[in-house]
Design brief:
- The complex is a heterodimer of chains A (285) and B (317).
- With 285 residues, chain A is mostly helical.
- Helices cover 75% and strands 2% of the residues of chain A.
- Chain A has one domain.
- In chain A, helix 1 packs across helix 9 and helix 10 crosses helix 11.
- The radius of gyration of chain A is 18 Å and the shape is globular.
- With 317 residues, chain B is mainly α.
- Chain B has 15 helices and 2 strands.
- In chain B, strands 1-2 form a two-stranded antiparallel sheet.
- The chains are: A mainly alpha (285), B mainly alpha (317).
Chain lengths: 285, 317
C-alpha cells in the first residue's frame, strides 16, 4: 500500500508541479493571476487530438499542438492581458481570463460535443516498480513532466533570456532601466507557461479523458497549489504540488477518491488561515 | 436625498419609471412567461447587489458567493423535508444562518489579500459543492430537494412578493452604500493600510460587509427555493461565476449598476435562449467585450452620462 501511495502520488505530483510551475511563473514575473491557465492545458489536448484525427503522426501532432498553445499563450499576454494590466484593476484581469476560459469551454463543446476523447499512448510498456505495475502512459507522463520542469529551471537559471526573466521578476522597473524589454519578457514567460500547461495536457490525455470541462478542476488545483506554496515562489509551488499529490493518493487509498478534492482544498484553506503567505512566503522567481 | 435628486434627476426619474412599470406589469397584461422572467431577473439583481456590497466596495473579490446562497437555499430545503417551512419563517431563518456563516468564514478569510481571498472563497464554494454531491441522502445530490412550499398559490402574488423584496433589499443596500459605512468600505479598497492608519477598524467593517452580503444572498436563496418549490445543485453552484459576470457588466461600487446589470443581462439571456448552444458563447463574449471596452460597467457609464458631464459621481469607480 505504501508503495502504491508513493508511486501514484509521485506521478500525480509531477503533473501538478508542471501545471503549477507555469501558473507561478506568470505570477512571479508579470504579477498576473492568469485564470486562463487551465484552458491552455485543455487547448493543447484538443489540438493534439484533432491533429491525430486528421492522420498526422502522434509525435508530430503533439509538437504542433505545443507550438500552437505557446503561440496562444504569447498572444493572450500580448493583447488582452497587457492591455488590462496597463489599466491596472486586478478584478478585471481575473474576470477576463476566467470568462475567456469559459468561452473556450463553450467553443469546444460546440465543435466537439460534450463527449470524452483520449489520445493513443506515446509509450505502452508497463514498468515494474517494487510490487507496483505502472502503465506505460503514466511512466511517460512522469518522465516528460520531470524533464520539462528541469528544462525550464535550467533555462531560467542558465540562459541570458532566463536571467532577463529573473531580473524582470525581481523588479520590472529596474529591469527596464537596464534596457530589458519587459513587455517582451512577459510575452515569452506567458508562452513558456502555456507550453508547460500544454505538455501536461498532452501527456495525461492517453490515460485521462479529454473533455470541455477538464480545465476547471485543473485550474483550481493549480491555483490552490501555487497559493499554498506562496504566490510567485517556484520552489514553493513544487513542494506544494508534491505534498498535495501524496495527500490525494493517501485520501484515495484510505478513504474515498471522491473526497480527494475536498481534502485538498480544506488543507489549503486551513493553511492560508494560519499562514496567509503560503509555505515559502513572498519570494520572486 | 436632495443631493441625490439634484445631481441625478434624470436617473432617479428613469428608475422610478422602471419601478412603476414593474409594479403595473401584471395589471397591464397577463404574460406569464415574462412575469417569470422578471421574477428570476429580480432575484439575480439582489444577488448582484449583495455581491457588490462586499466585492465592489472593498475590492475583495468573492469567487464563492454561491456558498452563501447555498446556506440559505439548502437550510430551507433540508428543513422542509421534515417540516414544511412557510416563507415568513424561512426567509429570516435563512438570513440569520447565512449571516452567522458569513461571520465564521469572513473573520479568517478577509485578512487575506487579493488573489488569496479569491482562492479561499472559491475553495469554500467548491468544498460545499463537492459535499453536496457526496452527501446526496441529505442534500438530494444532483436531483435536488423537492416539496418546498410555494411563495404563493399564483404567479402574480409570487411576482409581487419577489418585486417587493428586491426593491427593499436593493434600496437598503444602495443607501447603505451611500452612507458613511459605504464610504469607509471604499476607503478600504483604495488603501487598506491608510484606512487602518487613520483609526478605522478595517476588519470589523469588512466582516460586517461580508455578513450583510451573506444575509441578503441567503435570504434570496431561500426565496428562490420557495419560488421554484425546489432547491437544486444547478440552481445554486453556477451562481458564483454568474453573479460576478452580472455585476461586472452592470458596473461595480454603486449597488444599482450591478443590480440593473443583473436584471437586464438575465432578461437578455432569456431572449438569447432561442440561439440554443450559442447563447453561452454570446454571454461570455459580452462579458469579455465589456471588460475590455467599458471596464466600469454599462450602467455606471450610463449614470455618468445622465449626470450631464460630471465625470466621477458617487457611483463611479
Amino acid at each position: 500500500m505504501i508503495q502504491s501511495l508513493l508511486v501514484n502520488g509521485t506521478i500525480n505530483s509531477s503533473i501538478y508541479a508542471l501545471i503549477a510551475l507555469g501558473f507561478s511563473l506568470t505570477f512571479g514575473v508579470a504579477g498576473i493571476v492568469n485564470l486562463y491557465h487551465g484552458a491552455y492545458y485543455m487547448v493543447a489536448a484538443y489540438l493534439a487530438f484533432t491533429f491525430v484525427r486528421i492522420n498526422i503522426p502522434l509525435w508530430l501532432a503533439a509538437l504542433l499542438s505545443l507550438v500552437g498553445v505557446s503561440f496562444l499563450g504569447a498572444m493572450m499576454m500580448k493583447y488582452p492581458i497587457l492591455y488590462l494590466k496597463k489599466k491596472g484593476e486586478n478584478i478585471y484581469m481575473l474576470i477576463f481570463t476566467l470568462g475567456a476560459a469559459y468561452m473556450t469551454q463553450f467553443l469546444f463543446k460546440l465543435f466537439f460535443g460534450a463527449r470524452m476523447y483520449a489520445l493513443p499512448p506515446f509509450f505502452n510498456q508497463s514498468i515494474q516498480v517494487g510490487s507496483e505495475t505502472v502503465p506505460g502512459p503514466r511512466v511517460f507522463a512522469f518522465l516528460v513532466a520531470v524533464a520539462s520542469i528541469v528544462g525550464v529551471l535550467l533555462f531560467i537559471n542558465k540562459t541570458s533570456i532566463g536571467k532577463k526573466i529573473t531580473a524582470t521578476s525581481q523588479d520590472s522597473y529596474a529591469a527596464e532601466l537596464v534596457g530589458i524589454n519587459t513587455q517582451g519578457i512577459f510575452i515569452i514567460t506567458s508562452a513558456i507557461s502555456a507550453l508547460l500547461a500544454g505538455i501536461a495536457g498532452i501527456v495525461i490525455s492517453p490515460y485521462l479523458s479529454i473533455s470541455p470541462t477538464m480545465w476547471l478542476p485543473t485550474l483550481i488545483k493549480a491555483f490552490a497549489i501555487v497559493i499554498f506554496g506562496g504566490l510567485g515562489s517556484i520552489t514553493g509551488s513544487i513542494i506544494a504540488a508534491f505534498l498535495m499529490g501524496y495527500l490525494e493518493s493517501f485520501i484515495a487509498l484510505t478513504w474515498t477518491s471522491s473526497m480527494t478534492e475536498v481534502a485538498f482544498l480544506a488543507v489549503v484553506f486551513l493553511f492560508l488561515i494560519v499562514k496567509p503567505s503560503g509555505i515559502l512566503g513572498k519570494k520572486t522567481v | 436625498m436632495r443631493a441625490l435628486w439634484k445631481k441625478n434627476g434624470i436617473t432617479v426619474l428613469l428608475l422610478l419609471a422602471g419601478v412603476v412599470f414593474l409594479l403595473l406589469f401584471p395589471v397591464l397584461g397577463d404574460d406569464l412567461y415574462l412575469l417569470t422572467v422578471f421574477s428570476i431577473a429580480l432575484m439575480y439583481s439582489v444577488y448582484a447587489a449583495s455581491w457588490d456590497l462586499l466585492s465592489g466596495y472593498t475590492g475583495k473579490e468573492n469567487f464563492g458567493h454561491a456558498a452563501l446562497v447555498a446556506i440559505g437555499a439548502y437550510s430551507l430545503g433540508i428543513i422542509s423535508q421534515s417540516t414544511p417551512l412557510q416563507p415568513i419563517l424561512s426567509i429570516p431563518l435563512a438570513g440569520i444562518l447565512s449571516i452567522v456563516w458569513g461571520i465564521l468564514i469572513g473573520i479568517p478569510t478577509l485578512r487575506l489579500k487579493g488573489p488569496y481571498f479569491a482562492l479561499a472563497t472559491l475553495a469554500v464554494a467548491s468544498i460545499m459543492e463537492k459535499l453536496t454531491l457526496s452527501f446526496s441522502e441529505v442534500t438530494g445530490g444532483e436531483e435536488g430537494l423537492y416539496g418546498i412550499p410555494f411563495l404563493a398559490q399564483d404567479f402574480v402574488p409570487s411576482y409581487y412578493f419577489v418585486l417587493l423584496f428586491a426593491i427593499l433589499s436593493i434600496g437598503f443596500l444602495f443607501f447603505l452604500g451611500r452612507s458613511n459605512f459605504g464610504l469607509t468600505l471604499k476607503s478600504i479598497r483604495s488603501d487598506e493600510d491608510a484606512a487602518r492608519a487613520v483609526g478605522i477598524s478595517t476588519t470589523r467593517y469588512k466582516v460586517t460587509a461580508f455578513a450583510i452580503s451573506a444575509g441578503f444572498a441567503g435570504m434570496t436563496g431561500a426565496i428562490s427555493g420557495h419560488y421554484y418549490g425546489f432547491v437544486g445543485f444547478d440552481m445554486v453552484f453556477p451562481l458564483s461565476l454568474n453573479i460576478i459576470i452580472l455585476s461586472v457588466v452592470g458596473g461595480l461600487g454603486g449597488i444599482l449598476p450591478a443590480a440593473l446589470g443583473a436584471f437586464f443581462l438575465t432578461y437578455l439571456t432569456e431572449l438569447l435562449r432561442e440561439f440554443g448552444e450559442f447563447n453561452q458563447l454570446i454571454y461570455t463574449g459580452i462579458l469579455m467585450v465589456v471588460v475590455l471596452v467599458l471596464p466600469h460597467g454599462v450602467f455606471n457609464l450610463l449614470g455618468d452620462f445622465l449626470r450631464r458631464g460630471r465625470k466621477h459621481g458617487v457611483t463611479g469607480r
